[in-house]
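Schema walkthrough. Field components (list of strings):
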Amino acid sequence: MISETPDVIAATGQASMVDRLYDSVMNIYRNHTFRVTIQAIITVWAVITFTFFLIRLMPGNPIDVLVEQIMVAEGIPYQDAYDRVAASFDFDPDASAIDQYFDWFSDVLRLDLGTSITSPGTRVVDEIARFLPWTLFAVGTGLLVSFVLGIVLGMMMAYYRNSPLDHILSLFASFMTGIPNYIWGLLIVIVLGIQFNLFNVGALRGTYDVSTTPGFNLPFIKSAFEHAFLPIVTYVVSTLGGWMLNMKSSTMSVLNDDYVNVAEARGLKDSRIITAYVGRNAALPLFTQLTISIGFVLGSGVVIEEIFVYWGLGHYLFASITTRDYTSMQGVFVILVITVVFANLIADLTYGFLDPRVRVSGQK
Amino acid sequence: MNQKMNDDVVLRVDDLSIVYRTKRGNVQATTDISFDLKRGEAMALIGESGSGKTTVSLSLIRKLPKNALVTKGQVLYQREGNVRDVLKLSKRQLREFRWKDCAMVFQGSQNAFNPVLKIRKQFEDTARAHGWTDKEAVRQRALELLRLVRLDPERVYEAYPHELSGGMKQRTLLALGVLLNPQVVILDEPTTALDILTQRAIIDVLNDMQKKLNFSIIFISHDLSLAAEMADIVATVYAGEIVEIGPVNDIFYDPQHPYTHGLLTSVPKLDHEQDLLTSIKGAPPNLITPPSGCKFHPRCPYVTEKCSVDGPPLAGDKPEHLAACWHKDALLKAREELAQEVAQ
Ligand SMILES: Nc1ncnc2c1ncn2[C@@H]1O[C@H](COP(=O)(O)OP(=O)(O)OP(=O)(O)O)[C@@H](O)[C@H]1O
Ligand SMILES: [Mg+2]
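Field assembly_structure (string):
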């Protein structure tokens, strides 16, 4: 035998060395987790603080809005209307914003988002718990469908590049990304709902048919999907084009990589090469974009839900803005920010499972 | 249609011509390449950059780029008495043929492994694609091969590609290459990207493996000294043609083609390419409009009018040592004079 090469020597180090290495890697890992978590918390704090004051800079306050309504509706003088509204609201318009902020924020720290200003006694947390699941359901389904579809179509475009299929899909994808999602929402209402009368948008108000009993039963699930269908379609068409184009270019570059060529020379089946060799590597960069997309789609959901009268968090937020229900608005923003920031955090911490190359180096 | 092949011939390349279709015209990358490779034999293809070595090797597993076209010839593999032309296999037969009958280590394939899968998975994938599903058996075989290429088998088997150095990856690829007991292993400049010591280690490992596993090798290299160590047979390729082929000793001590002689006298120094240019005047020809007659004639010191009209046949006194030149005598005389000069 010829003398051992350096590789072998390096590999057969003492066990204690390996243990210590493992420990220190784990430490760095914990630190990384710790650090990004702290960053996430600071982000959440900064954003909700910013929005707290932004909300208060909006013209009008909850009392003014309702006073005006009552004056117009009942024709009574300002002072009478004001007294009536102020008595029923749990809100002092003259308190300083700073004081309000500290009051509110200390409640938030105790996981209490307060009660609604315009309907005293209604806890904001309860309202959010009622509306949030529907938004997550519609946005989540929409994103998932769009992501999976985009990956499949994008790969097809790359595999059949320069074919008529590729040209048609590319055109289609650029067209879809070029149109903002609220325009898509309106288009869908006008075309599918009014022109072709395929969907009765009015009858599909809310999130499920109230004659069904919520739970794990077919009629309820069916009606939930029916009600969410158009918002989901909107989320899909407005994001699909982006995934397709990204996946196409990512796949084309992976197809040029040596390991794909070698995999073919190894006689692997096409199905295995497409999924584990091309697909998996090409999809990696898209996962990072998925986290960005979550925030984007959640944010745009406010308008989309309003267009389709879908009673999710966006609908609730819209109603709160109309009445200047500060606490409800703040509550929604807190939840939205937390959802987005922690979706990113989870994506950051789990990316290593998808890409072994960042598993150690990325944690440093 | 198949000529009789001796039992010990595993690969016969017969009159193989390949063109690349490009915007500027057809590149005649190889012309009428023919050779036999015997069981357990190692053959080296040597020649300048662009002479068509990679093109030949890719065609042996039918893995040419899309713009390539085989205009003529056969690539016959013989295994257990069956002779098959790779160029005529169906898609499915081709997939099954690859790696099982002929494995290839590509030129500069430092990224030959899928970065997101462990080495173990990539061995298992290869085995499963060829109907071998017993993971434990694959593992045993893989560990044995990894040991053979002098790696720490357990560790490498469970590693991700990025955890291995370039030399380790290259050796892992060699181990993977022989996983299915191929008859032929093609190595396209397997050591070019590596340092001298690692190159040595790989050559040793290869020689060792070949002795134990008895496969045949096609070894492509710029480096004559590496080729000399690896090969039983050396073929010199010039402008897409084999201009000389013979046993390694004949080629080194009795070159019959001026191009081979030129390669040998340009003893590799640090900058190999540059040295080549000084000892063989001129540059390799443009393969879109190759020279008439003998393609080497514009650079040949012994050129006569005949050379530019007629291409010489690959021929020789000994059946195993052939060269395509009209002026072997002139070369022999020149070599004798050179030897005398050196002796004085
Ligand atoms: N995909 C391609 N399209 C067009 N021409 C090509 C292509 N690949 C190779 N060629 C041409 O074919 C000829 C032979 O190339 P090949 O890669 O076989 O050379 P080589 O001997 O392997 O060179 P090297 O030592 O640099 O690897 C060259 O003239 C090259 O320019
Ligand atoms: Mg080459």
